[in-house]
Design brief:
Layout: E1 2-3, E2 10-15, E3 18-23, H1 34-49, E4 55-60, E5 64-66, H2 71-75, H3 87-107, E6 112-116, E7 119-121, H4 123-130, E8 133-137, E9 141-143, H5 157-165, H6 167-176, E10 180-181, H7 182-188, E11 193-195, H8 200-212, H9 216-229, H10 234-248, H11 252-263
Parallel strand pairs: 3-4, 4-6, 5-7, 6-8, 7-9, 8-11
Antiparallel strand pairs: 1-2, 2-3, 9-10
Helix pairs in contact: 1-3, 3-4, 4-5, 5-6, 9-10
Length: 272
């Protein structure tokens, strides 16, 4: 089912519990626009609260995932102005957009998957890394890119990259902005899967479908456990795991899964 996002810069479809959000500026390698970010923020906010949405897939149209900021437009205002906004207004606006997009992909209590048909650069890389899982076309690549255009980085990339590869490697990737092939990204743990260019949509749909059919309540608490583990003390993680584990044991999904195990069949989860 096609969803009207209010702009052609972002396409959205909801099928069998999987919400697919496709960045759609292929002529600019899906560089971010104001309309795209507003629509992405809106759709992610709705998806977080909609019980019909079980999994979110973020991808790009054409041969790229997302080139990050629109450098050509930046060049047209190279005097450093921020349009009609003051610096403080511009900073606040970006903070709100970052939390509503990258932040929500990372924190929403549902699995998120980035499917990369091509380049993920700058803020585009940040959005991909904000997702729980990533799948890349064999010809795709990743790059922080910020140093090449005199930026320090945004949309959470410094946090996500440091968590995934460690501080020293993250610094190297930010300082030098080298390209990482899909194979190198897999070796570093920045992607979970690589597939042939013609297989990306089918393989991403297969993974997302499996997540959408999974135990919704358990996934919600798994994700919170895993996110908290990145910044919490071990006792905090142990306590949170205990609370969530006992709660999951009271769900219908757990009882169904236990019966299915005994009956040697696949469970049918209902998200309750």
């Amino acid at each position: 089912m096609r969803i009207d996002t209010g702009t052609d810069d972002l396409h959205a479809r909801l099928d069998d519990g999987v919400l697919t959000l496709a960045l759609n500026r292929p002529e600019a390698r899906n560089a971010l626009s104001g309309a795209m970010l507003e629509a992405l923020s809106d759709q992610l906010g709705k998806a977080e609260l909609d019980p019909v949405v079980k999994c979110v897939v973020l991808t790009g149209m054409g041969n790229a995932f997302c080139a990050g900021g629109d450098v050509k437009n930046m060049a047209s205002s190279s005097d450093g102005t921020v349009g009609v906004n003051t610096i403080d207004v511009a900073i606040h606006r970006q903070r709100v957009l970052q939390r509503a997009t990258a932040g929500r992909l990372f924190k929403m209590p549902k699995p998120t998957l980035a499917a990369l048909p091509g380049a993920a650069a700058g803020a585009g890389l940040s959005l991909a890394l904000a997702c729980d899982l990533r799948i890349m076309s064999a010809g795709a690549f990743m790059t922080t890119a910020f140093a090449r255009v005199g930026f320090s980085g945004d949309y959470g990339g410094t946090y996500f990259l440091s968590q995934l590869v460690g501080s020293a490697k993250a610094r190297e990737l930010y300082y030098f902005s080298e390209r990482l092939s899909a194979e190198e990204a897999l070796r570093l743990g920045l992607t979970n899967w690589i597939c042939g260019p013609g297989d990306l949509a089918e393989r991403a749909a297969e993974i997302a479908g499996r997540l959408a059919r999974g135990p919704t309540v358990a996934y919600r608490y798994m994700k919170e456990n895993l996110n908290r583990a990145m910044v919490s003390e071990v006792d905090d993680c142990l306590d949170l795991e205990a609370t969530h584990h006992v709660h999951c044991g009271q769900t219908s999904d757990h009882r169904e899964a236990a019966r299915a195990f005994v009956e040697k069949r696949d469970p049918v989860f209902r998200g309750v």
